[in-house]
């Protein structure tokens, strides 16, 4: 399915009302709503999460949260349920510290168990069907010199992203924050300082659609990743690929899994510079206290991604 760029604002409003009126089930029906609608929905969900973060001690009710995003209680409830498949109250229960701590119990064995049962390997992510290839030491040293990178900005269920491709696969997924596409491009340039960057959205769009289809559990062609990092960073990112959807582990668990139990801070640093978030799921690593922790693209986005996955898997 292709994004309908010619759709007017009025038509999109009518389209949204039709979708809300239908009885839908999770995951989101991408045949019924276009990708731009996902971005619109996500922005309001994130705004609601930010409001709840700022007022968590007061525990505001549904009506107050709805008003904070400019909607009636009824329409906010329907929008939220359409986007995530469950009620706002149930969604927030997934994001409590107590729920996170319960998920962390036994997480130290989770990575090894997943690997041993054959669900994943260092080169394949079972829930997104990903193959992974790292740059050579020489390529890393030369910061992309001689590499041609195509990029484009596309919608996802978690906001717009700048998607960048080399001939060997996806090399970066950068969320656009506050509508600032120039900042996203600057981030790409810092990572690949000597590469030849070209904006070719017609080339990146099919891959972006594959990413969304894979996230929604739809049929998707295999996705290839082209990771650029130090040997240590690559080891950490490969460990992230073994964390099942809807589950979480602690930074210390990753450190133990890669054979460096005292390197949890270094693990956190490697996770913080993950160039392909969402696909290399750094959002599934939280603090051992049960706190969600920070995220390069904001804690609200991390919480919405985690809650969305937990709702999808029922964890």
Structure description:
It is built from 14 helices and 9 strands. A hairpin with a 6-residue loop joins β3 (148-154) and β4 (161-166). The protein has 2 domains: 9-94, Arc Repressor Mutant, subunit A (Orthogonal Bundle); 101-313, Arc Repressor Mutant, subunit A, CATH 1.10.10.10. The chain has a 4-stranded mixed sheet with strand order 5-4-3-6, sandwiched between helices. A 3-stranded mixed sheet has the order 1-2-7. The protein has helices at 9-21, 35-54, 62-68, 73-84, 88-94, 97-104, 107-116, 137-141, 181-191, 201-215, 231-240, 251-257, 264-272, 299-313; strands spanning 124-125, 130-134, 148-154, 161-166, 169-175, 196-199, 223-227, 249-250, 285-286. The model is unreliable at 1-33 and 117-129 (pLDDT under 50). It has 315 residues and is of the alpha/beta class. The longest helix has 20 residues, at 35-54.
